[in-house]
Amino acid sequence: MAQAVNIKEQIKRAALDRGIRTNLLRPSNLLRSTSSALLQSLGIQVNRINREYPIVKPIDPNKVDVLKDPRFQASIAQCKHDTNLDIDRLANLWQFAQLSGPGIMLEVGSWHGGGALHIANAVPDREMYVFDPFSDQRSFESLDPELDASFHDNQFVDTSEAYVRRLFASAGRTGHIIPGFFPASAAGLDLRNIAFCHLDVDVYDATKKSLAFIAPRLAPRSYVLLDDYKRDARGVDQAVEEFLGAHPDFRCVPLFPGQGVIFSTRLV
Q: Residue 17's pLDDT band (boundaries 50, 70, 90)?
């Protein structure tokens, strides 16, 4: 038995040196790929990683409360095909939505609406607003060629307002689905007392305009959960830096893997 364990550890170390991450699995959950039959027989899951990043050990999901939550699991099953967010970021989204105080919930930049549905599932008693261009022509109102080089204009055009409405209806959720570029699309809406906003607009101009609009409308114990922060989106980082410089009572705390949570010290 000890020899088998030692062989497993040697294989794990050798695989990691070659940019492959491995996780021990129970025999009933072994991978089926014939190309990794030897590793499977030892109860090892193989995931390829980028050797540029210093991943020593994979994230251990065992005994993490949010992952065991049946409501969280049910929500993931509903939204997983309609979001680009990984399980880590979806867990952050779920928990900060539930931590927020009384008020309305927003998602700005929604694509297929999976993230917005996940928020609605986390706090089903809250009023939910979903903003996205929902355009088949362009995803962004403005792109900076240097700061926003990681994105292009037709990157998220495979969506529609009707698609997101159907997604919410299929899950038995209600929400205000608002097409157009935010914050202009919010004109005429009463968006005071924002308790939580998932801001996923990717680029400099949209992040800057959105933060300027949202900040004076935040409720006590509110959070703005920002996607693509410190994640090769220079425009987002620059917009946050400028916002924090102009609003000394606000803080932004980085969250792994590639989010930031913004809050006001006056509103805690």
A: low
For the stretch 70-90, pLDDT in tens is 999 999 999 999 999 999 999
101 and 14 assigned to the same domain: no
140: pLDDT confidence band, cut at 50, 70 and 90?
A: very high
End-to-end CA distance of the chain: 54
* Report field, pTM of the whole predicted structure over 0.90: no
Q: Is 5 exposed, middle or buried (0-12, 13-18, 19+ CB in 10 A)?
A: exposed
Cα–Cα distance for residue pair 263/203, rounded to 1 Å: 20
Do 90 and 118 contact (CB within 8 A), yes or no? yes
Domain shared by 128 and 69, yes or no:
yes
- Name which of 137, 139, 119 is nearest 129 in CA terms: 119
Looking at residue 13, its pLDDT comes to 66
What is the average pLDDT value for the chain, to the nearest integer? 89
For the chain, give the longest Cα–Cα distance.
70
Show the domain range for 195: 65-264
- What CATH code is carried by the domain that includes residue 249? 3.40.50.150
Query: What residues have CB less than 8 Å from 229, skipping those under 6 apart?
Result: 236, 237, 240, 252, 254, 255, 258, 259, 260
How many separate domains does the chain show? 2
